[in-house]
Design brief:
The chain is mainly α. 36% of the residues lie in helices and 5% in strands. The protein contains two helices and two strands, in the order H-E-E-H. The radius of gyration is 19 Å and the shape is elongated.
Length: 84
């Protein structure tokens, strides 16, 4: 059984197309963002999967979405505290 599993080959013959894609390219370019804040519009914070940042399957996109959301929230709080 171990030999079979070790030597098993999966032959990929195609994809299910865009409608079934787990990841696509695109989003807001990273050069338009600094500390998750837009460089084009004041007080606009952008994070998560709306950014042009892709990772392999396995939860990496979700992790980035959560982590960037936390960092964005922290940045907003820091900026608010700086103005008080």
């Amino acid at each position: 059984m171990a030999s079979f599993a070790k030597n098993w080959k999966l032959i990929i013959t195609g994809t299910k197309g865009f409608d079934f894609a787990q990841i696509t390219n695109g989003g807001i370019p990273l050069n338009e963002i600094h500390n998750y804040q837009s460089t084009k519009m004041d007080n606009l914070y952008i994070c998560g999967e709306i950014l042009d940042k892709q990772f392999p399957c396995g939860g990496f996109n979700l992790d980035f979405a959560w982590q960037s959301g936390i960092k964005t929230a922290n940045r907003i709080v820091e900026k608010k505290n700086d103005t008080n």
